[in-house]
Specification:
The protein is an all-alpha fold. The protein has a single domain (2-247), classed as Four Helix Bundle (Hemerythrin (Met), subunit A) (Up-down Bundle). The protein is built from nine helices and no strands. The longest helix is centred in the N-terminal third of the chain and has 32 residues, at 10-41. The radius of gyration is 19 Å and the shape is globular. It starts with a helix and ends in a 7-residue tail after the last helix.
């Protein structure tokens, strides 16, 4: 049904082909990197299937949303976001694996590269003139999953208590609040404050995960990141609630 919907429109065929090509190419890289990780880090045999399954789920969601893309091709920016999704899948595959220092160090390297690419996709979209609502939503949801995975890894590796999981849940708790409170159901303007705190949260979790940080230091770093995130969402909620009711979507 999904492919029929997209292929039925001639202008979407090139878009579908580009998306599938990018997804399959990245999937092959996951297999190669995942195999090396299993051997080099002595991970369980379940690591690669977990990473592949998570990437497949993300790819399916992208394909489901594909008809809303207003361009007839994916564009380099969205291809970079697909790559970021693959790197997040590799990190997510570590959930349930043993928490050695070597594994944590590799996770920090992969997470740092994922964060570095976060600014690349937006830059490419603007430079190519292909900035779109689809791309912005794709990037935002990828960031949300990235933070959630990092938060679970920080907790799993014993670098902070279970409260750190709130860092990954905040975006989804806010989304639930939006469904329950009509006044929150309207667009939030993009602000430098929001972008800065989002990046700060990612950096904080990556630092907390680093083997060089003791659990005592990691707790403080993760706590600062979480407090900043709570403040950002609170300010957004207050701004939305102060808007006139007639402006609601």
């Amino acid at each position: 049904m999904l492919f029929t919907t997209v292929i039925a429109r001639p202008q979407h065929r090139e878009l579908l082909l580009g998306a599938l090509t990018g997804i399959l190419a990245v999937a092959l890289s996951i297999v190669a990197i995942g195999t090396l990780a299993v051997n080099g880090l002595h991970l369980s045999a379940a690591y690669l299937p977990k990473a592949m399954l998570l990437f497949a789920l993300g790819a399916a969601l992208v394909l489901l949303a594909l008809p809303s893309h207003r361009f007839d091709r994916m564009g380099s920016a969205n291809q970079v976001t697909i790559l970021r999704g693959a790197m997040i899948a590799l990190l997510a595959g570590l959930l349930g694996e043993h928490g050695s220092s070597a594994t944590a160090a590799v996770a920090v390297i992969v997470a740092s590269a994922t964060l570095a690419l976060d600014g690349v996709d937006g830059w490419l979209a603007r430079r190519s003139g292909m900035a779109s609502e689809f791309g912005a939503r794709f990037d935002m949801e990828t960031d949300a999953v990235f933070v959630a995975v990092l938060a679970v890894l920080v907790w799993q590796f014993g670098k902070a208590g279970s409260w750190v999981l709130l860092s990954g849940l905040m975006r989804y708790l806010f989304a639930a609040a939006v469904l329950l409170v009509p006044r929150l159901q309207r667009p939030i303007p993009s602000t430098m404050r929001g972008k800065s705190i989002a990046v700060l949260q990612m950096i904080a979790l990556i630092l907390a995960l680093a083997p060089v940080c003791s659990p005592t230091i990691s707790v403080w770093i993760a706590a600062i990141g979480l407090l900043a995130l709570v403040l950002s969402f609170s300010l957004d909620a207050v701004w939305l609630l102060r808007q006139p009711a007639r402006d609601a979507a």
